Amino acid sequence: MSNFVIGLMGMVIMILMILIGIPVFVSLAIVSIIGMWLVGGLDFMLIQFTTGPFNISASYQFAVIPLFVLMGMFAGESKIGEWAYEGFKRWIGKKRGGLLIATVAGNAVFGACSGMSTAGTAVFAKIAFPQLKQVGYQESFSLACLVASGSLSSLIPPSMPILLFSILTGVSIGQAFIAGIGPGILMVIIYSILIYAYAIFRPSYFPIVKVKYHVKDKIKGFILMIPILGLFTIVIGGIYAGIFTPTVGGAVGSVTALLFALISGTQFKRIYESLWDSVKAIGRIFPIIMSAIMYSRFIAVTELPQVIGDYILRFEIPKFYIYLLSMGFYLIIGCFMDVPSIIFITSPIVFPLLTQIGYDPLVVVIAYVFMAETGGLTPPFGLGVFFLSSLLNIPSIVIFRNIWIFVGANLLIIILIGLIPEIVTLLPRLLY
Known about the structure:
Layout: H1 3-19, H2 24-40, H3 42-57, H4 64-77, H5 80-92, H6 98-114, H7 117-135, H8 139-149, H9 160-169, H10 173-179, H11 181-201, H12 215-224, H13 226-241, H14 246-263, H15 268-302, H16 304-314, H17 319-333, H18 339-356, H19 361-375, H20 383-392, H21 396-419, H22 422-431
Helix pairs in contact: 1-2, 1-15, 2-3, 2-15, 3-15, 4-14, 4-15, 5-6, 5-12, 6-7, 6-8, 6-11, 6-13, 7-8, 7-20, 8-21, 9-18, 10-22, 11-21, 11-22, 13-14, 15-18, 16-18, 17-19, 17-21, 18-19, 19-21
């Protein structure tokens, strides 16, 4: 049996194991152990699995993950998300649809410290939704916008999915962070245009807020956004300027977010719970990381990505069609898997494939992270929708009624990224 067949069978068996409910890290580890045994023999497998996990766990670069997780936890407990929303609300909240646009913009800014879409969704479900409901905004559309805009936390740096993808594929973390800014801004613009257009055709969905904000109020609104913008500037600016590495940047960001949490009046009990939640999150992530890297080594030994890439190149299929096909695959699996799991499982195959046919590695990282997030919005297994549904105790069907509007906007962004890669690559090229 050839190495290619072993690699292909391993990938299929691993996916089937996950679908029947076996934990992701167990599925990856079992397939990697058996696969390496079949490819190189017992001695080869034992060498890989005695030195590999130790080298991975002892690697300095992985220290960046718990630090950014901790920063996101502290940021979620502080009031900087609430301050950002209030700041945008004072500037655009009076316009028809303005509260939803403020939600989108606030999510984008909050993404500069949260790193995960679920964090953005949870914070703005607590902050924005009660106000939207009180004013009389249409419930289904508001909920769909809220969960969709939570995806901005996975694009705006520092993003945890981008961080994980970069570590697994060897892409520069700093460049990948910067690469997410362009698509994130594009997403805010398209969502805002969509909300404004909908407000014109469905004015009953978006009542006008009868509150007057004077110039002094708007200036205070801008001041409210300074802490979160300052956190972004300190972390991303420090990494870009070469003042510190991404790992040190995570440490600096964690301390800064902790200070904001203390200043905003967060109780010590909540800070302790954030620390414990971070420990539990890291405990869930690291076994998957170690097994995913061993799985990547197994796939690399079988040369499965190179063989698939060479086979596709023989047919001279336009690379944009291959890009769209892979995006469709991500949309499907994103319906029933969380983003980190998707990254760990698929990156050894899809990343080499698209880079081999000519796509910039940064474009591949951003497009796949964004598409996996979009899959979490679509029925029947939209994990992001179910998360918000359970959070607010609202039937998921209410959110699904209008989620397609934002899924369509996301698909448009994905197509634009494939056609105009400069959306992703321009900023990294200018800054680096």
